[in-house]
Every structure is written in structure tokens, then in C-alpha cells.
Design a protein that fits this description.
The protein is built from 13 helices and 14 strands. The protein is an alpha/beta fold. Strand 5, helix 7 and strand 6 form a beta-alpha-beta unit. It starts with a helix and ends in a 5-residue tail after the last strand. The structure holds S-adenosylmethionine (SAM).
Length: 312
């Protein structure tokens, strides 16, 4: 299966000569990353257990919960392991662990994960909050909420309330009653970072504009329920500027927000300055583009906004 020619052209425009490398990574197996669920076990204890059967490494000194299983594995082996069933770890690509690291929630925060299912980031946020504070995990799809609930149960999450609402409706309902310290908006997207040959099949240029409009709409409503001074992380698993820099630019143009600097343990690129005639703010140097070829991971985009407050 080959990527569609328009997909190839766009990636070439974005990455230049590196486009070939990007597409090569779709044919390479993903590395087996897991995240230690510190609500149930410490990284040291988990390491001792897993080392009995697999070769494992913790590649990021400051984040011992990020574990890479180096051994060759049978299909489904990570999911069937007793330590997984016990909720000691969550199977999650390392790039997908970056948005909660950027959000950096604390034990006293009031946090909203507005598009939460199946819960890889909800469970990570709850672990970072040490099951304290309050987390609301929302999604619109009941089938995905069921998986979210079972993941939360397996991981021993107890500080989280699940809601099932369209994000726009939820924000309108909450707007006059409550505001959040921190919000994660990890939106549905065109998935250019997902290293699966199905991405080539699914990709079509029309969905990019559709997602971009939805993402701007969601970002506008979630900003209405963020406290002044509060922080919002916007993330996607795609690389299209329409769904990334353009969405952040929309927020800069219409709301009192600024792009915050974030430090992530993965290699990443700055945001781009221009795309097909649309110019972006110099603040895009603080957003992170994570390319598959940089860390042998999936592709991701992560940006953090702070609400300055006041009207405009
Ligand atoms: C990229 S996935 C989220 C992945 C999740 N954050 C995780 O880490 O496991 C996007 C989610 O947004 C949900 N979604 C899409 N549109 C929505 C809307 N208008 N309101 C609420 N949820 C929505 C989808 O059902 C999907 O589960």
C-alpha cells in the first residue's frame, strides 16, 4: 500500500527531503512502550517483575515510568501479561505520553480531559495527580467510554468522574458554574502520525479541513471554561498545519492566550511559520512537532496555552 500522491506532496512540502524517512517509518514495527501506573506500583518494583521475562529499559532518566520493552514479543503478549491485567502498566506509545507531561497536573488541581476515551491520558493524568484533586473525563462515544471506564478501574483511578456529552454542550452547561485549572484537549484528527498502513488508506484531503474546523470550535468552547491563568494542552496525533499551528493561531487571534514554553523528553521540532500562504505567530517556536523519524515513535503535536484573562 502506497500513500496517496496528495499525501506524499503535502509531507514533502512540510518535511522536504525527510519525507522519505517519514514514510519509511510506517513500514517499521513500532517500539513496545509501556507506562508504569504509579497508582499501583513504583517503577522500581515493576522493573524487578518485568525483568524476569523481558529485557526492559527506562530511556528517560527524569521519567522512570516510561519503559521500553526491548525483547521480541508474541502478538498480544503485553496485553495478556498478569502485570497488565493487574493495572501495573498501560500500553502506550511514548509520544502519546507527552500531552499529560506538558499539562503537568498537581494533586490540588481541578482538571478536565474533554475528549478522554479510551483513557491513556486520563489514567496518566490521574497518576500524576496521585488520585487527588478532581478530574473530569468526558467523551461523546459510549463504546469508547466503556473502554475508558474499564481502563480506569484496572488502573485504580478514584479521583475521576466520567461524563458522556458532546464537548460543546458540556462547556455551555458548565460555563456559568465552574472553571478548570487545567484542560487537556486531545482531539480527533486526520492521524498522520499513526504508524499504521491503514493511515494511507483512510487519509483524504477533505477530512483535514473538516477536522480543522471542529478543532477550532472545540478549542473556543473549552477556553470559555478555563480559569484566568489556567493552562490548556492541545494535542493531536497528526502533522497537518491546518489541524495544529492553524488551530493555535486561531486561539491567539481570538482569545487572550499565550503559548507557554514546555520541556519534553522527546526530540521535537518547533512549529512552522507559514503554510500555503497562512502565516503563523513567532510563538509557534514553543509548540512541539514530534516526527516518527526523530524518536522512532508515532507522530504527535503538543502545544500549551495559558489564559491571560480579561476580554478582547
Ligand atoms: C484522539 S481520541 C482521544 C484519545 C484519548 N485522549 C486517549 O489518550 O486515550 C479523540 C476522542 O474525542 C472524542 N470526541 C470527538 N468529538 C467529540 C465531541 N464533540 N465531544 C466529545 N468527545 C468527542 C472521540 O470519541 C474520541 O474518543
Amino acid at each position: 500500500m502506497q500513500p496517496k500522491s496528495q499525501f506524499q506532496e503535502r509531507i514533502k512540502l512540510l518535511m522536504g527531503e525527510e519525507a522519505e524517512q517519514y514514510f519509511e517509518y510506517f513500514r517499521k514495527p513500532l517500539q513496545n512502550f509501556i507506562r508504569c501506573n504509579t497508582l499501583k506500583i513504583s517503577p522500581e518494583e515493576l522493573k524487578k517483575k518485568l525483568e524476569k521475562k523481558w529485557q526492559i529499559i527506562q530511556p528517560y532518566h527524569e521519567y522512570p515510568e516510561i519503559i521500553l520493552v526491548k525483547s521480541g514479543l508474541m502478538p498480544g503478549e503485553l496485553g495478556k501479561a498478569v502485570e497488565h491485567l493487574m493495572g501495573y502498566y498501560y500500553i502506550q506509545d511514548v509520544s502519546s505520553m507527552m500531552p499529560p507531561i506538558a499539562l503537568d497536573p498537581t494533586e490540588t488541581d481541578f482538571v478536565l480531559d474533554i475528549t478522554a476515551a479510551p483513557g491513556s491520558k486520563t489514567t496518566q493524568i490521574a497518576a500524576r495527580m496521585k488520585n487527588s484533586g478532581l478530574l473530569i473525563a468526558n467523551d461523546i462515544r459510549i463504546d469508547r467510554i466503556n473502554i475508558l471506564a474499564s481502563n480506569m478501574e484496572r488502573c485504580g483511578v478514584t479521583n475521576t468522574v466520567i461524563t458522556r456529552e458532546d464537548a460543546v454542550n458540556l462547556c455551555r452547561k458548565l460555563e456559568k458554574r465552574m472553571k478548570f485549572d487545567k484542560i487537556l484537549l486531545d482531539t480527533s484528527c486526520s492521524g498522520e502520525g499513526i504508524r499504521d498502513l491503514k493511515t494511507f488508506e483512510i487519509w483524504n484531503p477533505n477530512m483535514i479541513e473538516k477536522f480543522s474546523r471542529q478543532q477550532k470550535r472545540l478549542l473556543a468552547v473549552v477556553l470559555s471554561i478555563l480559569k484566568d491563568g489556567g493552562e490548556l494542552v492541545y494535542s493531536t496525533c497528526t502533522l497537518t498545519p491546518e489541524e495544529n499551528e492553524s488551530v493555535i493561531q486561531f486561539a491567539l487571534d481570538n482569545f487572550n492566550v499565550k503559548v507557554e514554553e514546555i520541556e519534553l523528553p522527546l526530540k521535537s521540532r518547533e512549529g512552522i511559520n507559514e503554510w500555503r500562504g497562512e502565516k503563523f505567530s513567532s510563538e509557534m517556536k514553543e509548540v512541539h512537532r514530534i516526527y516518527p523519524q526523530d524518536n522512532n515513535s508515532e507522530g504527535f503535536f503538543v502545544a500549551k496555552l495559558r489564559k491571560i484573562g480579561g476580554n478582547r
